[in-house]
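Project standup — Tuesday

K.O.: blocked on the structure for the chain from last sprint. Re-posting the sequence here as requested.
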Amino acid sequence: MTECKSVSTPLCTTESVPSTLYRSIIGSLLYLIALKPKIMYSVGLVARFQSNPRLSHLQAAKRILRYVKGTISYGLHYIFSSALPITAFSDADWGGSLPDRKKAEYIAASQAGSQLLWMHTTLANLGLHFSGPPKLYCDNQSAIAISKNPTLHWKSKHIDIKKKRLRWHGGKEGQGEKELEKGLKEETKQPFIWVLRDMFVGETRRAQLPKGFEERVEGKGMVVKDWAPQLQILGHESIRGFMSYCGWNSCMESISMGVPIAAWPVHSNQLRNTILVIKLLKVGLVVNDWARRDELVSSSTVEIDMKRLLVSKEGVDLRKRVVEMSGAVKQLVEEGDVSRMELDSFVAHITRS
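H.V.: unblocked you, prediction finished:
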């Protein structure tokens, strides 16, 4: 290299590529992840550079496209009529360090559990049935012990924010349902509809109602144990609030119907949706804060937040704001609106022969 030309910087800074092209490739690849989970890591990696992509990033994205072309006949085939088992395996090692290994194993199991619940919920919304509850296998006894231990050790306090994903379905049977029952029936004293969808199909249920609950709320509340016409319920004139985990569809339907949201995020994208609803759109309030998602929500908390939403001035202001937003949303899909025309154009494009 004694005869090479000198450069002003140690790394190339002029090989930028059109960001629009790069983003369109990444957007297409993100849709493919559902059918080709093997590309999830590589797509997630190249998706980090959408704001200022370089030639090397574009080359990496094109390599993924070449892989997709070679495996075009591969994919996941979900059979609607069959009962699917959902199983996940978790394993991790923090650089071979024996003292830290159990913490890495636990955090990895927590993240795997979050993805497992997301996939289970997504498939259930698509109408698929399951042969049993989702199973997560972990080969580290210390990580398993931490997930079962209701009391944190001082050495594991820094992973406190992770543990809820593993303990959400592992707490004392029926404890959360009893607190919610007391808050709805005895303290809030407001009529309600409580939808309890099973986490899986079979003899064993994820959550049992407190004994005699339905008899005690007769005339005051209604319990739906299966699929419910959510959009139809939200569109009824008597509905003044919607307590939700803040899945994307639930948020969109509630806002479209002009119903304020009592947010109770648990995992995956529900936190981001909650921030959108509470902080940006300002059409709801938080029942259980994300930072305290590992704590049992008491009946008094349910009472306070439900009264805020249903009978306070704050609730009146929230309903007024979300009703105005509902009108604006509905106008967007009316014939002749620019957004409707763009949507029709998109549908025509993807359905062309």
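K.O.: great, moving the ticket to review. The chain has three domains: 19-70, 83-167, 175-332. The beta strands are 83-84, 87-90, 129-130, 135-138, 192-195, 221-224, 242-244, 261-263, 284-286.
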